[in-house]
């Protein structure tokens, strides 16, 4: 018994010894809310090089000297290939760095802790008093829109590849102070576990889906998430992302506006990516407009209504010209078959619900279409195809 414990200790200590390096490196990612960064730079492929040495089998190396450089998004010939890194989702690591809220009574702040991979991730209830305190202490900002990111995750289900890609894109490109996942049940599955290992600042906030608004029963789960995203932005401000929205460059230039949406089509605005100050004026007007909510009208209050309101209150909202959602829902071929030049986009919406095929960390390496260029840009730092 004693002997066994002794051996366990040695085993753990050895790993902790190794991990001490990992931890120091992961602190290279600073929790700075004003960290202005553009496109991914040279060495920012997944898992900062030395950070997880054991999993990095190879560095991405271009096939020849004429290949577009790492991070180049001006050349769209897609002729050159790169030797891409292998990513092992199940690499051995007994511990991870995790942002943990410390709450007592009405105080709260965040600490970075080394936790066991098997430890549960912290869960707080939405609107717990501690959250506002630690956001003020740890995530304050000079911009109206704080650098915090929100996702809404309803129903118990495993995380898929593109969800992983979305959260990882935000982590890597926006470098937010905190990434909140608001949901009834925590995501599950291998992509979620992998995400927790490599992204230290994810916090799960529990919230039961709303059942009604303005005395009308909400029928569709999509409408529930439509309403929840507005409520969380009212409470905390920040950046709301759909789980199939991938960030391609920093949103910092837009954080100076109180409220920002992007056109989806000429008639409506997308609610798949929203920047909002806490309790923003436009947000309150939009929420009030749900008084006339009709559960049977798909997309009316979530996309047509904000477009109408933006015409009435143009000073309260900044409207982007489709830079969050090109290609639009009518051109999904440009996502899954063609190569769309997204260099002018802030983000791209994958409209995964129109597409049944399952993608993975492996299949996107040689996928010659927009989804492939986007995924490789986020994971490896270049959009070029991988040799295999
Ligand atoms: C990934 O890592 C695990 C644990 O270290 C190992 O068992 C597995 O063989 C690795 N997979 C690949 C494809 O290298
Ligand atoms: C958050 O702020 C508190 C109080 O200033 C500080 O002790 C703590 O280290 C901060 N946490 C992080 C992760 O920066
Ligand atoms: C909801 O119903 C209550 C009670 O019947 C009523 O007072 C309230 O005005 C209604 N709210 C809306 C938005 O219709
Ligand atoms: C916007 O309007 C178009 C055309 O009416 C519609 O197909 C689409 O579902 C609406 N919503 C979004 C988010 O594009
Ligand atoms: C929006 O962008 C499109 C090109 O994508 C351009 O044709 C159009 O003129 C722009 N509209 C405005 C209002 O800037
Ligand atoms: C990838 O697709 C583009 C067209 O979108 C094509 O021009 C290019 O040759 C393809 N690359 C390879 C390596 O097949």
> Which cofactors or ions or other ligands sit in this model?
2-acetamido-2-deoxy-beta-D-glucopyranose
Return the string of H and E elements. HEEEEEHEHEHEEEHEEEEHHEHEHE
> Are there runs of 5+ residues with pLDDT below 50, and where?
1-57
Radius of gyration: 21 Å
What is the strand arrangement across the widest sheet? 5-8-7-6-11-14-13-15
Helix content bin = 25-40%
Count of extended strands: 17
Average pLDDT works out at 84
Task: Report, as a whole number of angstroms, the end-to-end distance.
Answer: 48 Å
What does the main sheet amount to?
A: 8 strands, mixed
Shape: globular
Q: Tell me the fraction of residues in β-strands, as a range.
A: 15-25%
Structural class: alpha/beta
Put simply, the count of helices is 9
What can you tell me about this protein's structure?
There is one protein chain. With 388 residues, this protein is of the alpha/beta class. The protein contains 9 helices and 17 strands. The protein has helices at residues 2-26, 129-138, 161-174, 190-198, 221-236, 281-289, 300-312, 333-336, 370-380; strands at 61-62, 81-83, 95-104, 107-116, 123-125, 148-153, 178-183, 202-206, 212-213, 216-217, 238-241, 245-247, 259-263, 269-276, 318-320, 347-349, 385-386. The strands form 5 sheets. Strands 5-8-7-6-11-14-13-15 form an 8-stranded mixed β-sheet, sandwiched between helices. Strands 1-2-17 form a 3-stranded mixed β-sheet, covered by helices on one side. Strand 7, helix 4 (190-198) and strand 8 form a beta-alpha-beta unit. Helix 6 (281-289) packs across helix 7. It is globular. The model is unreliable at 1-57 (pLDDT under 50).
